[in-house]
């Protein structure tokens, strides 16, 4: 009689398509590789809703605006193509050309003063003073206020009456001779708006510089101090080169913001007195919604967009090169 054998000595037969005791799935089913059903949704499907919204809200209006720049569209009804007539009219428009000069002057003033004050504030609150947290909050608070509200607030500050606002403060400290009609004087209106913008966003620049300062290793300052470097030398040769990324961010943001500045100018001066504080943004707004020249206004908007893009790209390339050499 055959003797009993262990069960393990008989290899277990596998049936195609059936899971074995060891949990293995046969590699073949009727001579073909087994296929597993994958019910995973393709990742790109999750992007489709956002792309649709972006196309409707951003892409279509942008492309339509480029088309309308070559038409005589009035905002209502039909239109006809006029070629480059709108751009030729822009070159002959003295008010638009003056607004370009105002925009550049306003941008330079805002970029230089805002970032200079922001850097000083960042250095001041990057110390061990007990009130540094409160000071950071106070300096940053104006940046989260609506630009229109800031403009309305500063219109009270710039009240031309002798006993009100800034004029009242100057009279109280014995500087009454410096009283001015800050928003009504054509030679001061643009710079008054620039001061308003700097006051609002200097704290924002401070936060960016502060983040850069906190990224500077303390060991470098300690080593420079041991080598006999003073405060200015440590800032010049240790801190300033390492602030290059923060400087790039601040200069880019303030430049773009200055070139397309609209809210504060329109709410405070409406481009006046006359055209002394007119910017490209206020010109294109008035051409569209005051004079009904939507075709011309989109041409101005297209020129502004291309100008901002060109300045930003040149600035970014220069600043990125500085980050490498710093």
UniProtKB/TrEMBL annotation:
Domain called ABC transmembrane type-1: residue spans:
100-315
Q: Which CDD domains match?
A: TM_PBP2 (cd06261)
The text of the family note is:
Belongs to the binding-protein-dependent transport system permease family.
A Pfam family recorded for this sequence: BPD_transp_1
| Name under which the protein is recorded | Carbohydrate ABC transporter permease
Subcellular localization, as worded in the UniProt entry: Cell membrane
- What keywords are assigned to this protein? Cell membrane, Membrane, Transmembrane, Transmembrane helix, Transport
Membrane topology field:
Multi-pass membrane protein
Membrane-crossing ranges are 44-70, 104-125, 137-157, 188-216, 237-256, 294-314
- Chief subcellular site? membrane
């Amino acid at each position: 009689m055959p003797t009993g054998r262990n069960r393990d000595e008989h290899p277990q037969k596998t049936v195609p398509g059936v899971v074995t005791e060891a949990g293995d799935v046969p590699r073949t089913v009727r001579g073909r590789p087994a296929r597993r059903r994958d019910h995973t949704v393709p990742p790109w499907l999750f992007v489709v809703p956002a792309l649709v919204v972006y196309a409707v809200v951003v892409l279509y209006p942008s492309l339509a605006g480029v088309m309308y720049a070559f038409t005589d569209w009035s905002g209502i009804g039909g239109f006809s193509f006029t070629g480059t007539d709108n751009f030729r009219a822009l070159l002959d428009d003295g008010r638009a050309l003056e607004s370009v000069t105002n925009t550049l002057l306003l941008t330079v003033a805002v970029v230089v003063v805002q970032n200079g004050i922001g850097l000083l504030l960042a250095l001041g609150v990057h110390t061990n003073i007990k009130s540094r947290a409160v000071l950071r909050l106070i300096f940053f608070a104006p940046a989260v206020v609506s630009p229109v509200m800031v403009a309305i607030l500063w219109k009270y500050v710039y009240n031309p009456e002798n006993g009100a606002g800034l004029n009242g403060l100057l009279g109280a400290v014995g500087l009454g001779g410096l009283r001015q009609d800050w928003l009504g004087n054509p030679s001061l209106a643009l710079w008054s708006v620039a001061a308003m913008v700097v006051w609002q966003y200097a704290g924002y620049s401070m936060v960016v510089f502060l983040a850069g300062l906190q990224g500077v290793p303390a060991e470098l300052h300690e080593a420079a101090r041991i080598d006999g470097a003073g405060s200015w030398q440590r800032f010049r040769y240790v801190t300033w080169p390492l602030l290059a990324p923060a400087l790039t961010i601040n200069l880019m943001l303030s430049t773009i913001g200055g070139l397309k500045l609209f809210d504060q100018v329109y709410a405070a001066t409406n481009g006046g007195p006359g055209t002394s504080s007119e910017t490209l943004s206020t010109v294109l707004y008035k051409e569209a919604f005051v004079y009904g020249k939507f075709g011309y206004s989109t041409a101005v908007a297209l020129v502004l967009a291309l100008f901002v893009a060109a300045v930003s790209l040149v600035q970014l390339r220069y600043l990125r090169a500085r980050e490498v050499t710093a």
